[in-house]
Amino acid sequence: MSSPPTLPISSQQTGPTQSQPPIATPAFRTFVSRLSSSVRQGLSQRRPWTELVDRTSFSRPDSLTDAASRVRKNFSYFRVNYVTLLAVVLAFSLLSHPFSLLVLLGLLAAWLFLYLFRPSDQPLVVLGRTFSDRETLGVLVVSTVVVIFLTSVGSLLISALMVGLAIVCAHGAFRVPEDLFLDDQEPGNTGFLSFLGSAASSAAAAAAPAVAIRV
After folding, report:
1. CA-CA distances (angstroms) from residue 86 to 71, 167, 175?
2. pLDDT, tens digit, for every residue of 5-49?
3. Residue from 31, 185, 177, 14 nearest 115 by CA
């Protein structure tokens, strides 16, 4: 008695599907690493806060010229402390307005994940429609202009910056700078926003390869 014919069975092994990450992870890590290192390097140059609020060093300026001279000297000496104060005022304003904070975070996330660090060979698809890099950039630019200039977010940022600058200018005008040691050997680019410029340049250098691919 012959045995029934054996049916051929093909076993197809399906390996795990490797999905491409939504962002270029190495470039994003480089961006975060360079930005954080620049910020840490800048904050390491701050002056002692006790020196900033020393009561014995405050007096009324004799004239507007004297006040302007004090502000200029104090800017050169307390530049990192002043930027920190501005950041604190801005953060407090955003935390007191959670909707504006969420809008700004969403806008920042859109720039990072939809354009700057999105893999160049992975098109953006929304509701079945594929957007090119130029279309994505145009939408992001228009959204940024609308959020910053046509909503309350822009007025909140401007008002917070004005309050922070007023505090900084008032302190700089009333703080007597005669007891401050200003190193004449400091390079000329160590101005008020020097370490912010360093952080921005480092972040731009990290994001440049991802942007250059799309241009």
Report:
1. 16, 9, 18
2. 555 554 444 444 444 445 556 666 776 777 777 777 777 778 888
3. 31
Q: Is 192 helix (H, G, I), strand (E, B) or coil?
A: coil
> Does pLDDT of 93 surpass 70?
yes
35, 202 Cβ separation under 8 angstroms: yes
Indicate the Cα dihedral angle 202, 42, 79, 91, nearest 10°: 80
Tokens in use for 155? 């007025």
Residue 23 is encoded by which pair of tokens?
């962002």
**Contact indicator for 28, 109 with CB cutoff of 8 Å:** no
- Across-strand partners of 126? 129
List alpha helices for the chain, DSSP H: 25-43, 49-52, 64-77, 79-95, 98-111, 133-149, 152-174, 194-214
